[in-house]
Amino acid sequence: MAPEFQKNTTYVSTELESGDVQENFDDDGREKRTGTLLTASAHIITAVIGSGVLSLAWAIAQLGWVAGPAVLFAFSFITYFTSTLLADCYRSPGPVSGERNYTYMDVVRSHLGGVKVTLCGIAQYANLVGVTVGYTITASISMVAVQKSNCFHKNGHEASCSIESYPYMIIFAVIQVILSQIPNFHKLSWLSILAAVMSFAYSSIGLGLSIAKVAGVGHHVKTSITGVVVGVDVSESEKVWKSFQAIGDIAFAYAYSTVLIEIQDTLRSSPPENKVMKRASLAGVSTTTLFYILCGTIGYAAFGNKAPGNFLTGFGFYEPFWLIDLANICIAIHLIGAYQVFCQPLYGFVEARCSQRWPDSKFINSEHVVQVPCCGAKYSVNLFRLVWRTAYVVVTAVIAMIFPFFNDFLGLIRAASFYPLTVYFPIEMHIAQRKIPKYSFTWVWLKILSWTCLIVSLVAAAGSIKGLATDVKHYKPFSTQQ
Questions:
Q1: Whole-angstrom Cα distance, residue 185 to residue 380?
Q2: Could you tell me where the beta strands, DSSP code E, fall in 307-462?
Q3: CA–centroid distance for 366 within its chain
Q4: Which residues contact 118 (CB under 8 A, 6 or more apart)?
Q5: Which of 144, 199, 311, 339 could bridge 49 with an S-S bond, Cβ 3.0-4.6 Å?
Q6: pTM
Q7: Closest CA to 82 of 445, 424, 353
Q8: 220-230 burial by CB neighbour count: b if 16+ within 10 A, else e?
């Protein structure tokens, strides 16, 4: 197997007294973990609740009052169930006393091995790269929405407010360059907690505005059990494609398996990590589902079959403009933290492999202590970390600027990674770990679940390809947002 996919077994080689080892390091020589149920839940909520929560009204409009909420509940259960299977695979061979696996790839290597390890790495890290590019675009859209909101308030709702998003992408990238110097996932808890608070804030604002719209005098919009009406709202083919896309959007809205193992690796060893991770997953998925159902259904009631793709950045609301501004600022702050949650596993992967490949390189492995001016604090700087992480942020920002429709391409990436990372690998590893007999009742229904989710991924991929083809036809590089 290629060296870059070998398990990371780097240990702390510094000579320490036994008391120091116990106090500052785990029994495997790595930095002592301090994560708790609260920090793990915050990481999950930050990863799961994105600004996509504000597009769920559109998704339910495509599916209707029955299928929309049903799909939401179905994928919340599927995601929680498979996350519990994955949490049990963190250690091997046993879920409590086995050897730790530090990354998703390590988990797959321990339980399945072979070419599946490589396929897992491709799916996971392609998804992480895609998400970080998509978040750069989405954050800039939110900041553009702030400026547009003020323009509409000043000049009227019919005013032409054309605003460049590229300066905001650059600002977002500069912030990420600074935050990317956070060494690893273990130091990210404060940022995830802040981002989680922001996600609650803008979701609550969107929900409150939707309730106010529904309760408003003379409010009347068209809704139906089956969603948008063929021949009235959409054509027959549009109904099919948009339904596919809506199902995919809902399925992918829950996915956080790409970072689950890395989150679990931050947890203290006592109580057992798998038990804490299962509780964190329950808390995170339950909280997410509550917000998704409320924002989706009440948003649909507010806008009906004409629900916009995002009712904060798409201007389903214009007033009060200052509240719209606040919500979009919260979205941008949330995405700043979410970007780090998704890029830290990628950073760790590249740095661990480079350290293994060139163990004697001072550029890669040496830490330099720098005195922070004014406050007297000390900060450890690694030159390779500084250069490579900065380069990565710059590249994602440039891609975002060149391809402003990348979010539709991200839908295709997520369709390709959702099935293997959220469903297939957790189920297959659970079968291998528990040695479930082939063709037994448990084996059969797990396989049925797996194949069902594969069909959903293929359907969502078809919808994404259709949307991508439409975007490419109208693609104008470096165009001003209207």
A1: 16
A2: 368-371, 378-381
A3: 32
A4: 1, 2, 5
A5: 199
A6: 0.84
A7: 424
A8: eeebeeebbee
